[in-house]
Amino acid sequence: MSDFRQLSDAVWASPQIDLDDVAAAAARGFAMIINNRPEGESLDQAGGDAIAEAARAAGMAYRAIPVTHAGFNEDQVEQMAEALDSATGPVLAYCRSGTRSTLLWSLAKASQGAAPGDLAAAAASAGYDLSPIAPALHHYSAQAQAQPKG
Fold it and tell me: Quick one: the chain helix, strand, coil %, rounded to 5?
């Protein structure tokens, strides 16, 4: 059963998806699926290769940006920002519960200058809490705001 939670006009997060959820995402007009779950994290998770194949067969792009429970790194934040920027339509990001996907989305958006408070409100409306990464959000946002425009 699909549990797609809207974070923004263009991004939704979800707990682990299966092949039926890929079909549901395609039917709802998603253009890209981002897998933030490492392979083999749980015996009952659908494999990323199967999700990728189903997504591509349904006309959607697929990106894997796995995040372990060890946390996030700069490369993952940059990859997520690039994936979101390259999407030609709505994006569905998933992991075990949707939390890591939401946290990585918020870090990517903060790295592009989004206000941490706005990101926290959007995540909260979808049932996710950004407080564990609040310092990183403020750091990325301040760093983006300090960059010269142009």
Answer: 45, 10, 40
- Give CA torsion, residues 15, 89, 113, 98, to 10 deg: 0
DSSP reduced 3-state for 103: helix
Q: What is the CATH architecture assignment of 5-146? A: Alpha-Beta Complex (3.90)
The pLDDT assigned to 150 comes to 60
What's the token pair of residue 51?
A: 């999700």
The amino acid that residue 5 corresponds to is: R
Positions of the chain with pLDDT lower than 50, given as ranges: none
With 0-12 / 13-18 / 19 or more C-beta atoms within 10 angstroms meaning exposed / middle / buried, residue 27 is exposed
Q: How many CA atoms lie within 13 A of 43 on its CB side?
A: 0
In Å, how far are 39, 40, 51, 132 from 109, measured between CA atoms?
25, 28, 25, 16
Q: How far apart are the first and last CA of the chain?
A: 44
Q: Token pair of 55, please?
A: 């997504």
Q: Which two tokens stand for residue 40?
A: 């083999």
| pLDDT at residue 46, rounded to an integer | 86
Fill in the amino acid letter for 81.
Answer: A
Average pLDDT of every residue of the chain: 94
Residues listed for the chain: 150
